[in-house]
Amino acid sequence: MDLAEFRSKYQLNTLPELEQPNLIRDIEYPLRQAAVLIAIHEIDNELQLILTKRPTHLRAHPGQISFPGGKVEQTDNSYQATALREAEEEIGLLQSNVEVIGALPPHKTFTGFEITPYVAIVKNAFTPVIDPGEVDEYFTVPLSFLLKQDNRHSQKFSRKGIRYPVHFIPYQQHFIWGATAAMIDLLCRQLNNNSYN
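^ Coenzyme A pyrophosphatase, sequence as received from the core. Prediction below:
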C-alpha cells in the first residue's frame, strides 16, 4: 500500500459500520481528555506507523508503547492541536510537516482518559529529536505488518464482572497493548473495510 492508496482507503471506508467493542462505556468518574497522533511515514517506499515507548518514571502508563500525544492543555485550541503539539515536543515532528486526514472515535481507558486519535501523514523525511523526559524510545512498525489480522490479537479479561477485550500486538522486541493496540486494530479494520465477528 502506498500513500495514495492509504489516503483513499482511509477516506472511503467509514467507521460507523464497524463495531467498536474495545470502547469502555461504564466509567463513572470524570475522564481526562487526551489526544494522540497516529502518524504514517513513508520510509524507503514502505508505509510505517510511528510509535514511542514511554519512560518508566512517568506516572501514567510507564514503559508502555504509545502514539505521540498527551493530555489536553488549556492553551490548546483543539484536541488536534494537542496531538500536533505533543508530537512536536516528544519526537520533534514539526506541525508544518504533518497533514491530518481525519480522526478515529475517542477511546476511553480504565486509567481515566478519553483519548482522541488523529490520523496523519508525515509529508517529508525528518530526523526524530526525542524528549527524554517524555520518550524512552522512538520506532516505527510497517503498516503492512499491522494490516495482517494474524499479527493483531485480542483476549477477554474480566473487570467487575464485565468481560472486556484487551488488544495486543507483539512486534520484534516490543509488546504493543491496551489503548494503542486497540486504536491500531480499529485503523486496520477501517483500511481493510471489515468489522468484528
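Residues 92 and 127 are 8 Å apart (CA to CA).
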